[in-house]
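Q: What changes when 5-O-phosphono-beta-D-ribofuranosylamine is included in the input?
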Amino acid sequence: MNKIKIAILASGRGSNFEAIAKAVKDGTCHAQIMVLITNKPDAGAIKIAQNYKIPVEIVERKSFANRDGLDLKIKSILDQNKVELVVLAGYMLLIKNKSLLEKYENRIINIHPSLLPAFPGESAQKDAFEYGAKISGLTIHFVNETLDGGAIIYQEAVDISECENEYDVAREIITREHSAYAKVIDMFARGKFTTEGRRVKYVENNKEGKHE
Ligand code: GRF
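A: The predicted holo structure follows.
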């Protein structure tokens, strides 16, 4: 079965990245991680990439005159690596450049720790806890120019009713993120997600397992 060429974009500790790298190594996720791209030279994700012998590209915001410059550099790294799917895993900057978003339309995905459209933004677990939500979860969605606003590919509900603080919420959700993200990436290798407006549908590849 064909492996899908992916790039990971991460700004932080990289636990989702590590779970994906492990699933790729175990053969449960049919992907090839071409490159880790990070905007933070001290991101924990870099060490993980080194452990798994994955090339790293550091693209710091301050090295570019504006955000377009940064996004265009990212685009050139993706192009060079013939990346088929861009996986945001705790990448903390919005992708704004039109040519990057257009070229990789429906090929950039993000994972968010809530059931969108509830609790978008950086403090989703805290917001869910403070709101008193009993059920939260995770969302994997396509990336467009709006924050956590692209079409929804996959969601899982997580019971947070017993959580005593936002950290409990984060812990409950993150372990589910790890298995969900690798599973959805594997689905991209096995078939195709098509969008009609905001509705996303999945079609398995033919028996030959061709990636179209
Ligand atoms: C995860 O909670 C993810 O949902 C959000 O950022 C966090 C990244 O965590 N987008 P990690 O760096 O993968 O550990």
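Observations recorded in class: Strands lie at 4-9, 31-38, 56-58, 85-88, 108-112, 135-142, 152-159, 191-196, 199-204.
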